[in-house]
Amino acid sequence: MSTNQTRHILIQTYGCQMNVYDTEIMWRLLHPLGYRAAASEKTADIILINTCAIREKAEQKVFSFLGRLALLKQNRPQLIIGICGCIAQNQGKTLIQRSPCIDFVVGTHALFQLPSILDRVWNGQHRQKVYVDFEDHLIDVDLDHSPIMNTDISGFVTIMRGCNNYCAYCVVPYVRGREMSRPSDNIINEIKHKVSKGMREVTLLGQNVNSYGKREGMVSFSALLAEVNEIKDLLRIRFTTSHPKDLDMDLMDAFANLEKLCAHIHLPVQSGSDQILKRMNRKYTRKEYLAKIDRLKNKCPDISITSDFIVGFPGETREDFDDSLSLIRDVEYDSLFAFQYSDRDIAPASQFFPKVDDKIKRDRLIELLDVQSKNTLKRNDRCIGQCHSVLVEGKSKRDTDQWTGRTSGNKIVNFIAPETTNNLNAFLVDVFIEEACAHSLRGYLCHMK
Ligand code: SAH
Ligand code: SF4
Ligand code: F3S
User: Fold this and answer.
1) Ligand 3: centre distance to CA 86 (Å)
2) Burial class (CB in 10 A: 0-12, 13-18, 19+), 399
């Protein structure tokens, strides 16, 4: 493609960090071919929607954006619209039947074919084609050769794709396929490359990072962490998500032994009731989960623990829900995400009964978040009067006199520094915490490392 043919693309990303990372891969594949970011929908030649299917609401957001694009296309018929990501993989052809404005559909497994697909669509061939086979799942094709343009201070690197756990409510195993781990050399090289471009904190991504390398007989996740810990100029390591059933002693030890590994674990529990955990196919009991939390707290007393909960799973009684509330009180999470259960056609729980009434789901969500908000404040209050190491990510958006960053425990900190202070971006600094708010901490710079 010659430069006078620059194609302007807008990629709209929904969903989890996996999708954010996949959008980055799309850019890495497309930028060397001359594709450039469009400033807005109006100036885009091509609009790609990287979609999420996890809950009905996530899908609704995508479809309302698509509705806007359909109107745009009425005035500009040459606009190319492509759907990728998890809804694409799941719904394939039916998407085009539902929204004829769509030019092509690329499933999660055809990500690396995007350049050739776009070329064909651009040249007027293969209109309204659908690429959703599971066979083309080659995890690292072209990735090693595709340049990293620029990177944030804190960035993502996917270490594995797919999921084998089949939780009864979840679409991920169906839209992302079987678990596949990337070779550790590729992961290390990518992190090193990003560090050379300015990244200082990496979050290793996978639906269940604890099972990294198991299927392929490669190094374990803890061994991978130890390798990443050796990377020069990388300051911090995070990971998400780990499944409680697979959290082992090696990983717990890593929190005590690896100085770059942040003191934070996201350990989604989903429910505090054994009956519901069983129906969800989570493969652990409340007792086993709590025992692991205790061990983690012993290994790393300062660890921040966060989680995901689902309220209103089919069959959830008031007693089951009370078990979730008591678990939240027992663990004292630093923060959590909670969702109303949402039926997904392809997930088995869509056939589970009795369904919980929508109003009850809404009320339970509010009640649960209320219980947690007390924990969050309590956990944030504990930081007052302490010095915390903060990786600075820039100036605060709200108040540009302040800097912003996160503690090792992943709490946002806004802080002041003397006007004469040099640029703090990408440095680890010590911040004295003076005040705790609902979602962040406030303080002042006390020491630069
Ligand atoms: N792999 C991660 C979770 C990925 S999905 C894990 O196992 O923890 C992120 C969260 O979305 C889940 O933890 C769950 O709380 C929520 N979720 C998934 N499917 C859902 C559904 N059908 N309805 C409501 N919440 C759902
Ligand atoms: Fe979904 Fe369960 Fe896999 Fe997480 S572990 S992605 S919740 S099936
Ligand atoms: Fe959504 Fe797909 Fe992530 S369904 S949560 S974008 S793996």
Assistant:
1) 6
2) exposed
The residue whose two tokens read 């969800």 is 280
Cis peptide before 354 (omega within 30 of 0): yes
pLDDT in tens, 9-64: 999 999 999 999 999 999 999 998 999 999 999 999 999 999 999 999 999 999 99
> Which of 382, 411, 434 delimits the end of a domain?
382
Q: Do residues 237 and 340 share a domain?
A: no
Closest by CA to 210, choosing from 242, 178, 181, is 242
Among residues 352, 367, 382, which one ends one of the domains? 382
What does the radius of gyration of the chain's CA atoms come to, in whole angstroms? 23
Other C-beta atoms closer than 10 Å to the C-beta of 319 total 9
What is d(CA 231, CA 391) in angstroms, rounded to the nearest whole number?
A: 17
Q: Is the pLDDT of residue 103 over 80?
A: yes
First-to-final CA distance of the chain: 47
The finding on whether 239 has its CB within 6 A of some atom of ligand 1 is: no
Q: Are 149 and 27 in contact (CB under 8 A)?
A: yes
Q: Report the nearest atom of ligand 1 relative to the CA of 308.
A: 15
- Whole-number Å distance, alpha carbon 341 to ligand 1 midpoint, is 9
**How many Å apart are CA 384 and CA 376, to the nearest integer?**
13
Q: What is the DSSP letter of 277?
A: H
pTM: 0.95
Whether ligand 1 lies within 6 angstroms of the CB of 282 is answered as: no
11, 45 contact by CB (below 8 A): no
**Residues 272, 193 within the same domain:** no
